[in-house]
Amino acid sequence: MLAIGGSAALNMMTETTIAANHRDALQLLYSAEAGIDLGISRLRTNADWGAAAPDPRGTTLVQGRLTDLLQVTGVDPRLSVTAWVFPDPNGDPDVLILQAVASGGGGLGRAVQVTIRGAPATLSATVRNIRTISWRER
Fold first, then answer.
1. Could you give the 3-state DSSP secondary structure of residue 105?
2. In this structure, what DSSP letter does residue 125 have?
3. Is the CB of residue 135 less than 8 Å from the CB of residue 114?
4. Which residues on neighbouring strands pair with residue 86, listed in sequence order?
5. What is the tens place of the pLDDT at every residue in 50-83?
6. Domain extents for the chain?
7. Up-side HSE of residue 49: CA atoms within 13 Å toward CB?
């Protein structure tokens, strides 16, 4: 009986650890996606994408704790996100690459990279239409 009880306790601890790791990984993925969404939101009103992404090595667009960036409570305060914007390597002025990295407790981290295309800015439009070309989790 002692062996069966010990085995059940060990199994329960292992399953709890697996569930916690899965929860943390999903929180980090969603945090990185939030960083992408915040970056796109900031780029939507920017008429000159060349000025938003002048450095081919990347320009920081969003950085901070997720609770501060989203201005909400109820989010794990250990979660932080940084999003960079890169110019298109092919030189298209209407294409940008955004990369967001989220980190949390325990040294875990997740990254998302998105390539977006914006409709050319016009004088009459104050908000730029943006379309996602590719999305990948890293």
1. helix
2. -
3. yes
4. 97
5. 888 899 999 999 999 988 998 888 888 889 999 9
6. 2-137
7. 29
The structure tokens listed for 97 are 């690459």
Cβ–Cβ under 8 Å, residues 35 and 29? no
Token look-up 């780029």 returns 43
Q: What is the layout of strands, in order, in the sheet containing 59-65?
A: 59-65, 80-87, 95-103, 109-118, 130-137
**pLDDT recorded at residue 124:** 63
Q: Is the dihedral of CA 36, 42, 43, 45 positive or negative?
A: positive
Instruction: Please give the C-alpha separations between residue 58 and each of 54, 64, 89, 109, in angstroms, as whole numbers.
Output: 8, 17, 11, 19
The pLDDT confidence band at residue 37, using thresholds 50, 70 and 90, is very high
What does the DSSP assignment read for 14-31?
A: HHHHHHHHHHHHHHHHHH
> Which residues lie across from 135 on neighbouring strands?
114
CA 128 – CA 52 distance, rounded (Å): 14
